[in-house]
Amino acid sequence: MASAIQGLFSGVAVVIDDQAHAKTDKNLDAIIETIHAAGGLAIIHTALPKKDELSNYSSVAFVMMDWDLTPPGLSISEENRQALFEENVEFIRALGAHRHTPVVIFTNENLEEVTAVLNAHVDMRSHLASGRLLLRDKAEVGDKIYEVLNQWANEIPSVLALKTWEQQSVRALNDLFIDLHDRSPHWPVMLWETYSHDGPAPADELGKLITRLVASRMDQLELDLSRFVGEIDAKHRDDPAEYERTLKRVLEGERVLDVRRLHADSSAPGDFFQTPEATTSIYINVRPECDAIRRAGRSMPDLYLLKGQLVDPSKIDIHADHGQILDRDDQFTVYSMFNGASYRFGFKDLTIKKWEDWSKHRKGRLLSPFATRLQQKFAAYLQRSGLPAIPRVLRSSVTDSAETGETAAADGTAQA
Length: 416
Description:
Elements: H1 2-6, E1 12-16, H2 26-37, E2 41-45, E3 62-65, H3 78-96, E4 103-107, H4 111-119, H5 122-130, E5 133-137, H6 138-141, H7 145-153, H8 157-183, H9 187-198, H10 202-217, H11 229-238, H12 240-255, E6 256-258, E7 271-273, E8 281-285, H13 289-292, E9 303-311, E10 331-338, E11 341-353, H14 355-358, E12 362-366, H15 370-382, H16 392-411
Parallel strand pairs: 1-2, 1-3, 3-4, 4-5
Antiparallel strand pairs: 6-12, 7-8, 7-12, 8-9, 9-11, 10-11
Helix pairs in contact: 8-10, 9-10, 11-12
């Protein structure tokens, strides 16, 4: 029953309000009592937590904060009051670096005044517009806190997908460790020992294994986003250019991991580089993963780089029905790969460069299945066998026959 009440927000809630222990705000008291009554746990602060504590909130269900944390009856200048509001903004910004969790501002203050402060910051304005921030009057919430949160989540596709996936993944992660712990509590060490003999990065290999085994235990998500399709269709109709720019940014996020998310000493196939003087070309590493790892006592392995050239989308041949890019055997095109642009990699020339010289130019990592497909296609190119050409005098007759057949099929007159 409790989990049904909490819905997508079951678990630990963080409540930040200077009156949380005073029992003087009936709206706040109703919120906290409802969290406890539903079986949830509440971490209560009467002031903003320190930034170095925010990593502890990486798995909380939601963070609820009052906007004005000045104790009642305390007189402060308008300048100091605005400074406190700016601290709220910095807190929200810092929290967002640790957790993509709903930050809920439940306040007794004038909502228009709070909105004005938030809208003065580009990122906060974006968070309000996108639904990453939820601003509500405390009096409207009270004992309906979970109703408000779940209704809000059901209106924001990103939040709905995150919370649904999160519940499923946590269950799968626990199932995995229960299964393997019951076989042996030393199972990670057993695999670590094997990985240590096989290569220099056992922690990395173990992490990949856990990720793969968690994925294998996840059920199909109980998620249906079809009701939002009409919204994005309307956005496309209203402003096609802006919608397509946004879509390209989404595609880039699907296939590329930004360099800011990569460990400085991590090297892998798919790493791509762009030197300052190159504005229309990038280079991508196709060296096999087992060879791209630094061995003990050795320097980082050299990079095996293929050059990619910026390509205009109108020059990319995309299958009309299947949406697949139709490349020649000696090339591979990645759509919306870097800064919204597409790049085409040629296979004829392979450049070997030192990691030490090129690491500062790394921009990101192309992920699977794109990086894997690139490696596969490049390997096939290296092993290609040339076939004799069709005699020149027969080529036109073959083309004519094909065109005649297509015309007949279109007219419904082709013979079986």
